[in-house]
Amino acid sequence: MKIGVISDTHNVLRDDVLIYLKECDYIIHAGDVCKEEIIERLNEIANTFVVRGNNDKFEGLPDYLELEMNELLIYVVHDKKDIPKHVDNFDLVIYGHSHKYEYEVKDGVVYLNPGGCGRRRFSLSLTMAIVTIEDKEIKVTRINLED
Q1: What percent of the chain has pLDDT over 90?
Q2: Residue 10 region by backbone torsions, left for phi larger than 0, else alpha for psi between -120 and 50, else beta
Protein backbone atom coordinates (compact mmCIF):
# COMPACT_ATOMS: atom_id res chain seq x y z
CA MET A 1 0.00 0.00 0.00
CA LYS A 2 1.23 3.49 -0.88
CA ILE A 3 0.21 6.66 0.93
CA GLY A 4 1.01 10.10 -0.48
CA VAL A 5 1.78 12.41 2.43
CA ILE A 6 1.62 16.16 1.85
CA SER A 7 1.18 19.31 3.89
CA ASP A 8 1.00 23.07 3.61
CA THR A 9 -0.23 23.30 0.03
CA HIS A 10 -1.81 26.73 0.68
CA ASN A 11 -4.12 26.60 -2.38
CA VAL A 12 -1.39 25.25 -4.67
CA LEU A 13 -1.41 21.75 -6.18
CA ARG A 14 1.72 21.40 -8.28
CA ASP A 15 1.68 19.16 -11.34
CA ASP A 16 4.65 17.13 -10.08
CA VAL A 17 2.86 16.52 -6.75
CA LEU A 18 -0.20 15.26 -8.61
CA ILE A 19 1.94 12.86 -10.66
CA TYR A 20 3.32 11.25 -7.49
CA LEU A 21 -0.09 11.14 -5.81
CA LYS A 22 -1.65 9.28 -8.76
CA GLU A 23 0.52 6.30 -7.82
CA CYS A 24 -0.95 6.18 -4.28
CA ASP A 25 -3.80 4.24 -2.72
CA TYR A 26 -4.47 6.99 -0.16
CA ILE A 27 -3.49 10.61 0.47
CA ILE A 28 -2.89 12.18 3.88
CA HIS A 29 -2.77 15.99 4.03
CA ALA A 30 -1.40 17.40 7.30
CA GLY A 31 -3.20 20.73 7.05
CA ASP A 32 -3.10 24.22 5.57
CA VAL A 33 -5.12 23.25 2.52
CA CYS A 34 -6.85 26.67 2.59
CA LYS A 35 -9.65 25.89 0.09
CA GLU A 36 -12.08 22.99 0.02
CA GLU A 37 -11.58 22.66 -3.74
CA ILE A 38 -8.09 21.29 -3.08
CA ILE A 39 -9.55 18.44 -1.00
CA GLU A 40 -12.12 17.70 -3.73
CA ARG A 41 -9.35 17.51 -6.32
CA LEU A 42 -7.26 15.21 -4.12
CA ASN A 43 -10.26 12.93 -3.52
CA GLU A 44 -10.57 12.52 -7.29
CA ILE A 45 -7.12 10.91 -7.22
CA ALA A 46 -7.42 8.76 -4.07
CA ASN A 47 -9.30 8.59 -0.78
CA THR A 48 -7.93 11.61 1.12
CA PHE A 49 -7.64 12.28 4.86
CA VAL A 50 -7.10 15.89 5.96
CA VAL A 51 -6.61 17.68 9.29
CA ARG A 52 -7.18 21.36 10.02
CA GLY A 53 -4.18 23.64 9.69
CA ASN A 54 -3.86 27.09 11.24
CA ASN A 55 -4.82 28.66 7.87
CA ASP A 56 -7.85 26.45 7.22
CA LYS A 57 -10.90 28.59 7.98
CA PHE A 58 -13.68 26.44 6.51
CA GLU A 59 -15.81 23.98 8.51
CA GLY A 60 -15.60 20.23 8.67
CA LEU A 61 -11.93 19.45 9.21
CA PRO A 62 -10.86 17.63 12.37
CA ASP A 63 -7.97 18.90 14.50
CA TYR A 64 -6.42 15.42 14.42
CA LEU A 65 -7.06 11.98 12.97
CA GLU A 66 -6.43 8.48 14.22
CA LEU A 67 -6.34 6.07 11.27
CA GLU A 68 -5.79 2.35 10.88
CA MET A 69 -4.28 1.17 7.62
CA ASN A 70 -2.92 -2.32 6.98
CA GLU A 71 -3.03 -3.02 10.71
CA LEU A 72 -0.88 0.04 11.47
CA LEU A 73 -2.08 2.97 13.55
CA ILE A 74 -1.47 6.47 12.21
CA TYR A 75 -1.88 9.76 14.08
CA VAL A 76 -2.19 12.97 12.02
CA VAL A 77 -2.09 16.55 13.32
CA HIS A 78 -1.00 19.85 11.79
CA ASP A 79 1.44 21.25 14.35
CA LYS A 80 4.14 19.16 16.02
CA LYS A 81 3.49 20.90 19.35
CA ASP A 82 -0.03 19.41 19.32
CA ILE A 83 1.17 15.79 19.24
CA PRO A 84 0.04 14.15 22.50
CA LYS A 85 2.76 13.08 24.92
CA HIS A 86 1.80 9.43 24.68
CA VAL A 87 1.65 8.20 21.08
CA ASP A 88 3.59 5.00 21.69
CA ASN A 89 0.56 2.95 20.63
CA PHE A 90 0.83 4.48 17.12
CA ASP A 91 3.18 3.26 14.41
CA LEU A 92 3.32 6.50 12.42
CA VAL A 93 2.80 10.13 13.45
CA ILE A 94 2.34 12.67 10.65
CA TYR A 95 2.43 16.44 11.10
CA GLY A 96 3.17 19.60 9.08
CA HIS A 97 3.12 23.36 9.73
CA SER A 98 6.86 24.14 9.60
CA HIS A 99 7.21 23.48 5.84
CA LYS A 100 10.42 21.63 6.77
CA TYR A 101 10.87 17.92 6.03
CA GLU A 102 11.55 15.82 9.14
CA TYR A 103 11.87 12.07 9.58
CA GLU A 104 12.71 10.36 12.83
CA VAL A 105 12.12 7.00 14.48
CA LYS A 106 11.79 7.30 18.24
CA ASP A 107 10.86 4.43 20.55
CA GLY A 108 9.57 2.45 17.57
CA VAL A 109 7.30 5.25 16.33
CA VAL A 110 7.95 6.87 12.92
CA TYR A 111 7.55 10.68 13.02
CA LEU A 112 7.13 12.34 9.63
CA ASN A 113 6.71 15.92 8.48
CA PRO A 114 6.52 15.78 4.66
CA GLY A 115 7.46 19.46 4.43
CA GLY A 116 5.59 21.99 2.33
CA CYS A 117 4.67 21.37 -1.28
CA GLY A 118 2.69 24.51 -2.04
CA ARG A 119 4.34 27.91 -2.07
CA ARG A 120 8.01 28.09 -1.17
CA ARG A 121 8.58 29.41 2.34
CA PHE A 122 11.84 31.26 2.90
CA SER A 123 14.67 29.11 1.52
CA LEU A 124 13.11 25.76 2.48
CA SER A 125 12.92 22.99 -0.11
CA LEU A 126 9.58 21.92 -1.52
CA THR A 127 9.01 18.32 -0.42
CA MET A 128 6.46 15.58 0.09
CA ALA A 129 6.69 11.92 1.06
CA ILE A 130 5.48 8.54 -0.08
CA VAL A 131 4.89 6.02 2.70
CA THR A 132 4.89 2.40 1.62
CA ILE A 133 3.43 -0.13 4.03
CA GLU A 134 4.20 -3.78 3.37
CA ASP A 135 3.93 -6.60 5.91
CA LYS A 136 3.57 -4.04 8.75
CA GLU A 137 6.86 -2.42 7.68
CA ILE A 138 6.87 1.34 7.08
CA LYS A 139 9.16 2.71 4.38
CA VAL A 140 9.30 6.49 3.91
CA THR A 141 10.57 8.03 0.67
CA ARG A 142 11.32 11.75 0.60
CA ILE A 143 10.35 13.45 -2.65
CA ASN A 144 12.19 16.66 -3.52
CA LEU A 145 10.15 18.87 -5.83
CA GLU A 146 11.24 21.41 -8.38
CA ASP A 147 10.25 25.09 -8.27
Answers
A1: 92
A2: left
